[in-house]
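Quality-control log, excerpt.
Job 1 of 2 completed; input and output follow.
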Amino acid sequence: MMGIRTKVLSHSLEKTTVAWSTGLRQNGLVHVHFMEPQAANDLIGEFIAIRHLLFSTKVFDRFPVSGEGHSFSLSSEKSYQIVTGARKTKNIVPYARFLWTDMAGAKIDIAVDDGWIQSAIDGPVLDVYFDHYNHTGKITYVMPDFGKVQISPHAVERYTERNTDFIKAPRRSLMRFLNKEGFTKTKMPDSVLKHKRMRYGPNDPVEVWTYPESGLYLLFVLKDGYKELVTIYMPDLTLVKERQAMHRRKTHRANWLAAKEASKQASKKKRQIRIVL
């Protein structure tokens, strides 16, 4: 498990100082500088620090593609509530959103032990300068066939639903799929294109790509300097429906076997009671 612990040590109108640690080897301070006063800059500063450590500093020597296998121990109940959705403060949520979208599947809790903080204070210092656009947008990935890509949560959902295999880690699986080489650009039927434009906007140009024999079609909206994967669809849903039917049969059988075993155990317990009496 790759974990980051953070603790806000101090904050003012101009700067928030966040201590961080990944264990015995790596720790230090992040100074998040604000050019203009920001409300709740202690919470915003903590989320910016985590994002910077993950995707800019790359404290785990990799560019994370999903939250599976990661954990984050946050400073306070307030930070935790923002991530879990219990607190919906509009000006803070955009800075934390990457934790439940790009890092979906990560374990989130509140830091209890503070024995590591002194080591962090004595460690190296990173300076990060507040940038609303860069610190609230989706994470940008670089793919062999597509270049710079951002991925919407809806695309991950559709990939899971449209895939004929059962997927334990959807986002990680999708990232492996997108990193393949051999995608080809194709055309979308006019009827489908009309529907997609109504949903995702008529003004932004779109591209459709597919991978040979996958049966999956990827719809990208072209943005300024990158593509956003907004959805994945499959014109022929026969295989998907077969998979869903198989899953229903397996679930039904598993429930039936569990109920049968529970009934068997209950009957056995009753016989034991009669013997004792």
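Job 2 of 2 completed; input and output follow.
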Amino acid sequence: MNLQQQSALKKIMTEFGRNFAESEVMHQRHTEMINAVNLSDVERAMDSLLRCGVRQEVLTAAMESAEFEEVVGAFVSEMTRIVCNWDTADQIWLQRAVA
């Protein structure tokens, strides 16, 4: 993606929230993305901490804590929100380019 397109997408993103119908579509898309993320994949990434010397039992206990689940949920929600914004802006940009 070139800088001009990135700028165009950023400009489109500033317009988000002004249209209820678009906001509803974005909410549905965001929910779809959240559901698409497999939490076991996120948790598997934590296994890299074993290479730092964290014992498996400690890592397992941490990952089973309510705090960990809350943080992973927030991470996935924010990550997919960012991707959803860019994706929605890209879809709008493509529709405008075709028109």
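Post-run check on job 2. The chain has a mean pLDDT of 91.
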